[in-house]
Design brief:
The chain is mostly helical and about 325 residues long. The protein contains 15 helices and no strands. The longest helix is centred in the middle third of the chain and has 38 residues.
Length: about 325
């Protein structure tokens, strides 16, 4: 029996493989988040009800949550709930976790998405400018300053950057709100705290890639034709560094999304990260489990999107994988 041409098309095979990889990865994240919570020492129900709660009340609560059944039975029940959009019930508030995710996820996606766009928008022109200015050993002081600043920013943890930005711009200069999500100004500090480190990493990669491109034969040909610098760089240099730039950006994206947990806590941002941090302290394990699953799924979906964009920019990469 012959395979229909559509199913043999390189793009169909590429998307099929990526979808299968996504499903397998989601299974790993789901199983890991489920097992991780249940392997944590202590009794989450006892922690939620308090040390003075009656044993009968604790036992009844464990039965209601299905925590008195075998591990595999709990896992099967959890999978069944997920298929119906049920992420469990908070041990502390008794509210559905799915409702908490619905109200918190948009705020996290807003700052994570803006931080990723800021990273790309700054790293591309800054890396290009640094490469052009420091090419062939020119302006060594500029290269030294560039290397020192980017290396320093890349090595600073997100929460340290968040605390420093708060002290400088919010407390010291009083230019921006300290915390909360009221108005456009409140986005500035969390987005900066999330984007500074990945921008510093990416701008170094862009500079290296642009330096390689500038030594290519087609760039020498463009210079010999006396094309304007803007046309040479924007038409020839930037497109030929886009694939490498987006590849590295895709690698940095999971760390950026993970950084929202601490950054949201610092700025009291009403997102998934701050809810997860609060739930860890309160030992509200169903909420922690759901937040880990949601963040992991977000990272995987973002990675899939980056892969598709890279394949669109360089279709040969999709064909080679078939």
């Amino acid at each position: 029996m012959s395979v229909p041409p559509l199913l043999r098309h390189p793009w169909t095979v590429f998307l099929g493989r990526r979808t299968v990889r996504l499903i397998l990865s989601l299974g790993v994240v789901l199983t890991a988040s489920f097992a991780m919570i249940r392997l944590v020492p202590g009794d989450p129900v006892r922690a939620a009800l308090g040390v003075d709660a009656a044993p009968s009340l604790v036992a009844a609560r464990r039965h209601d949550l299905g925590l008195d059944t075998p591990f595999l039975s709990q896992y099967q029940h959890y999978l069944g709930g997920l298929l119906h959009g049920d992420l469990g019930t908070s041990l502390v508030t008794g509210a559905p976790v799915a409702e908490l995710v619905r109200t918190r996820l948009p705020a996290t996606l807003e700052i994570a998405g803006l931080a990723f766009l800021v990273t790309l928008a700054v790293a591309l022109p800054a890396g290009l400018l640094a490469a052009v200015r420091t090419r062939d050993g020119r302006h060594p002081r500029t290269e030294l300053a560039f290397t020192a600043v980017t290396a320093g920013l890349a090595g600073v943890p997100d929460f340290v950057l968040a605390a420093g930005l708060t002290a400088l711009l919010a407390v010291g200069l009083q230019l921006l709100p300290v915390a909360g999500a009221a108005g456009v100004e409140s986005f500035v500090l969390p987005v900066l705290a999330l984007s500074l480190a990945p921008t510093a990493v990416l701008v170094r990669i862009v500079r290296v890639e642009v330096l390689k491109v500038l030594d290519e034969d087609y760039m020498r040909t463009a210079r010999s034709k006396r094309l304007s610098p803007a046309r040479r760089y924007l038409r020839h240099a930037v497109p030929n560094t886009a694939t490498a730039t987006l590849t590295v950006a895709g690698v940095l994206l999971p760390a950026l999304i993970a950084g929202t947990v601490l950054v949201e806590k610092v700025f009291d941002w009403p997102g998934i990260g701050s809810a997860m941090a609060q739930s860890v302290v309160a030992q509200d394990y169903p909420v922690v489990q759901a937040m880990v699953l949601v963040l992991g799924t977000t990272v995987l979906l973002a990675g899939l999107l980056v892969d598709v964009v890279l394949a669109v920019l360089d279709p040969r990469s999709a064909i080679r994988e078939t």
